[in-house]
Queue: 4 jobs
Job 1
Amino acid sequence: MELNIEEFKSYLNIVFKDEISKIVVSNKVSKTQKFKRVEVVKKTDKYFVSEYDEKQVFNKNLSFEQLIEYLCSQTNMFKQFDFFSMENQFVIKISKKQKIFFNRLKNQNANVVLKSLKTEKNYILKEGQKIAPLVDMGIFTAEGKVVASAYDKYKQINKFVEIIDDYVRENDFKSINIIDFGCGKSYLTFIVYYYFSIIKKIDCHIVGIDLKRDVIEECNRLAKKYNYQNLSFEVADINGYEAKFPVDMVISLHACDTATDFAIFNAIKWNAKMIFSVPCCQHEINSQISAKNFSILTRYGVAKERISAIYTDIIRCNLLESMGYKVQLLEFIDFAHTPKNLLIRAKLSNIPLAVKKQMLQEVKNLSAEFNLNQKLFDLLKTNNFLNDLD
């Protein structure tokens, strides 16, 4: 039995008479299909679509007409479509026999969100401010109000700004130069620029680096649209990138595998005061790790993968300590990525020589025990950064 697509469209017509701010497409038809969930957020004149598989998220912008066709095309892939406005939740479900069920509910989250806006702590990115990037992300309305269905993302972005603000408040910056490695679509890059330039009134210069030319062109277009004059983007490789100015801060969010190591190495090489790095896709150690005395750690694939990621991050943290940075490893959720990540926050400090040597020795011990040759360790050795510690 085939789905009556015209009936599905008729329900869409009912739904979009309301001010829909978010759509969640879920309950996939087949376990083998690529995407497990789709989220759509309303922007000013576009709909921002995020398609999630097991490890990544794929994004695109659609017009309203394109969105309708897209949703119709997903009826072969998913069984449930949830639409959220400030007051209502609309649910379209498709049965195994291709029957369509439609329901309208009160958005139970709306009152909770409104209450939270009044009672929760004082956020750095305040509701009511005209923050153009947040409007384009679908997190703020054009009037500067938080979209109810995007409130979690609003909190997550504020959390990232707070992580930076904790370190910035300890310094009296008059100006700051920042490199953002692997900037991608630069959602948080625009927010970081807004934080420094508009909120903190600090003369801020940011360069975003990525390999995708079309993404860089779009980011430069948006920087001009927002009139962010000292924010620019370049097509370049993290490996071997040479900064054209002294670098105070390096940001690296989701730079894949060893790209994170090149970003951290560059920050160390430039003597950057602050480093904020969220690693991802950490395959290097997973392909190396072996342990005669601890074979239990590598016996089970999923456990081996997670242990390898943890080992990678703690090696990076220790190496940063050995290079004179005070390091914290924090839990962090990027608004565009639902899984929890670890964020490395490092600040150039006065680390005693004995501590530096201890941190390096711990890396050597771990590497010897598990047969590891981690990229950041290799970069520091090859470029003679560890000579004074051996």
Job 2
Amino acid sequence: MLPVVALVGRPNVGKSTLFNYLTKTRDALVADYPGLTRDRQYGRVRRGQRDYFVVDTGGIVETDAGIDEQAMRQVQYALEEADLILFLVDARHGLNAGDEAIAGRLRKTGKPVLLVVNKIDRADLAVAAGEFHALGLGEPLAISASHALGIDALLDRVEARLPESASAGSEPETEGIRIAVVGRPNVGKSTLVNRMLGEERVVVFDQPGTTRDSVFIPFERHGERYTLIDTAGIRRRGRVGETIEKFSVIKALQAIEKAHVVIYLADAREGVTDQDANLLGMVLEIGRGLIIGLNKWDGLDPAQKDQVRRQIDLKLPFVDFAEKYFISALHGTGVGHLFDAVHQVYAASMQDMSASRLTHLLQDAIAGHPPPLVRGRRIRLKYAHQGGHNPPTIVIHGNQTDEVPGSYKRYLMNAFREALGLHGTPIRLEFRSGDNPFKGRRNALTQRQIRKRRRLMRHVK
């Protein structure tokens, strides 16, 4: 289970700048679900030896009555989810009462805290960082998020403080295809899970997942083994109706990480929302097989159904590879087809592909539509081989591969998808350029020729 790192501090101390640098993006998921604040952003850090999630929180402000309790509540969810807290302070403004109040709150959480002094752009500011020792949170780590100063040391400190319990070795033993059911609150996730467990199950029991409160539910259906992963705290079937559905973006992302196949459930009565598109974007980034279920479909009239289909085409073109199923979890309409889809998507995401076949398909695609010219030279793509499963990863070797435009990458993805039948799963393409062994010699030879020509010219004169 990937650990979680929360960024907290006063406004304008550089939390978002650090967040963007760590995640290498500026378009991270913005969650505005009920109970979550609009300014909390979630992203995945793929640096160093371990991946982890990072949460950017809103600034904690101080009023005449002390820390604004409303602002603190906005951050509390992130602190509860976090395995490690990065407390950012501003070197330019120095230590103040607001930092001291926040430090006191963080000590009460009992969680590990790293004190990060940001905006160390000058030598005098680096010296001034020493005053933050007074917060009693250990040795301050001086960085400049905007200039990437001290980030390597920060990454090393973060990895050293991440809990071992969040590593892959702590996950429970599960069998069969792992299916994560995710979606916004009140779209019918628990109802769908109950319906999927059904009366035909042979074995079903509770197995607590991790400290993240995900629940793993192994069961059998028609001799096939599965494990449902639910983030809503589901217990035994008879008690599901008594539980209060909880929703957390972090829990959803961790469930996606653990799954082989994701069933994303949306409420057809509410249509496809921007939040649906955001969370589906994270599914695509993580790379799991995807099935989209439009729940409560039987309660719509024909005009409403047409409107939902138009919303799907308009807002979800980036997951056009995923099959859409129009279901009723309450009445069971269409739910049985989800199991057939799970098997198809799982088989596609775990498919083995030979290098010879991938290279042949690559050459066919190039023959049908050659790569574009870059500065007068044609991009050359020579051969391909498989680089991994779930998602299927195809590694393509050639020249000038860094220049392959996004449109041509999408063309190749579609070509591989159709030829290999990789429906329901995203595809990752990795491009690698081979080093030219004559590159250095060519430049050196040119210089020798120039010197020789100059000597000849002097001799002629």
Job 3
Amino acid sequence: MRKTFKIIYNSFRLALLELKNNKLRTFLSLLGVTFGIFCIIGVLSIVTSLERNVQNDIKSLGSNTIYIDKWDYSGGPDYPWWKYVKRPEPKFSEMRFIKEKSSAIKNICFNLSTTFNVEYKNDMLSDVQYYGVSEEFNAVQPVDIAYGRYLNVYDFNYGSPNIIIGYENAEKLFGKAENALGKEVKLKSKNARIVGVIKKQGKSIIGGWEYDRCILVPYRFFLQMFEEKYSNPVIMVLGKDNISVDALRDELKGVMRGLRKLGPLDEDNFTLNAVSDFSKAVSGFFGSVNLGGWFIGLLSLIVGTFSIANIMFVTVRERTPFIGLKKAIGANKGTILTEFLLESAFICILGGLIGLMLVFGITKLATSIFNFPVAISTGLLGMAIFLCVLIGVLAGIIPASIAARMDPVVAIRSK
């Protein structure tokens, strides 16, 4: 054990000595490893954190939820909008029919949306997101209330002018969000009373439900101000816990085709947009970005490997007499081999640590720019150290083998 610690100590000391005596040469050799670790760990840290936040936003939409709409949410460069625009809009009456015919549904609701102004005395907020929702909306898309209450059965059944306002809108109009309760505001041509304030959500990366800058309005009250067919109607379906998304989609497809009297050869005139599809698409996209980071990083690590190998060849040549002397007084091949491999690994780890420090700075910058936490996970730190050790061993194996096989007499006589 003592001998092992001595070998490790000597290797570490020699690595520091090499850095001290040949600063420029060692620094240039470290650049490849530093940049490689920076690319791989930096990209993985940012992309992993970004993906985690996007997936959390998607999960907030409901993991077992399907949006029935005339539009397909997948998008893409070849998006056939001309085909979708001709489709009929979902209707409130269709929501009721679906609820009666499907046994896979846990909750179902109807949602309308548009943008308009909200006025309070002499103040006005423009482009506020209006959501006209039916009774089960809160069960499909949960809304956390910070102050006051959520819309009740009376509000939905009679279209009463009671609304819920987003946290940011409440602060802009009333200074403090809690001051909004009980206030009367003007929505288009109607007066409405604020009965609740939505809990502050923060900015969503994918957009989604902009609760901070919205108002929730009972469906029937919404229709007193806007027409249904021009308000982006959507039917939102939450499946039962024991029903898979695919099974829910299949059942809804059959119900919708029957509802709209489509023949066996007729194309669907609706789209079933599952939230889980968004999650899969996001995973695929970020997977491609990760591959790009790995590719750039591995190229840099390959360059770094050759640089470290070069410096180790020079080091072996410079220490040839010293190696011969050590072998003459009893050092065996394994000791010489281990010392040079550890020295090579220590140099790589030093380059990796510089790369990690750069990544740490980037994560702090990214956190402030993107306004969401970016962190280096323990797993990524472990992978970085493993890569550094692996590169050190690969770079030093040939020079270390040459040093271990040297004849002590020949080595001592060399200059």
Job 4
Amino acid sequence: MDGHKNYNKGTDIIMVLDEFINTLYAEKGYSKHTCRAYYCDIKDFLKFFLPEKNIDFITNDMLSKFTKKEIKIIIRKYMAKIQQSGLSKNSSSRKLSALRSFFRYLVKIGQIDLNPADYIPYPKIEMKIPNFLSIDDLFRLLDSIKSDSLLEKRNLAIFETFYSTGTRVSEIIGLNIQDIDFKKQVVKVLGKGAKQRIVPIGKRALKALMQYRKMLKKEYKALFLNKNFTRLSARSIQRILLKIVCECGLNVPVSPHTLRHSFATHMLDSGADLRGIQEMLGHTSLSTTQIYTHVTIDKLMQVYDKAHPRS
């Protein structure tokens, strides 16, 4: 069974679910947040599947009494109920992903023969155009950050690094000083699923990082530190950014992810290759990166409508 437990027919399904979640985390590299969401999603489905049973006493042989067709019908009813409840299509899609993965695991360990969740279509998700700042607004934001005190130098280094690398906030807070190669001008980033990638970093960001680190009286492992000299949190970065945005007078919503979107949009507008942007952002699929082409096309259409005499 590929190292997995060979469960008896009367094994509690929660034990199987725990093993499945452990596999996602330890072997597949899923984040704790995703594992927790999958766990809740599958428990929610099991309650719907066998409503008369206490979930802690549902056993795997209770599932095996149903045919693949019967389980498939129940999954369809479950997905219909979710969509009628007003849950977002993204959340509905994640719940179906959780079920597909769980049933795939049950097939793998020999509990069922075929995956009943295969071929059940995902809800159609409308592609949202990401918020981003214009180059002028982004420069205004970065240029407004003072760099007199240690914390001000740190703040400038954080947001210069954000815009220079297009990294996620979770990746920024996870950076260590040894991840920055000042000579080669690259950063080693640990992304989703514990996947590592090398990202270029610009001279302005490197200069801001050097000036910040020079003010520290000793070396620390973490790159960005709070006032207690421990690793900065994502919530703290969000709070710092909000304060800077208010102080510089930008009347637009800005989050750390806005800086990531701005990085990708500005790179694409300047002629960068979509594949290269995909690698820098750490997207596993090019389709995820292609959303930025919609931003560029929208911008192009606006220019066309304003400029063309017969538009």
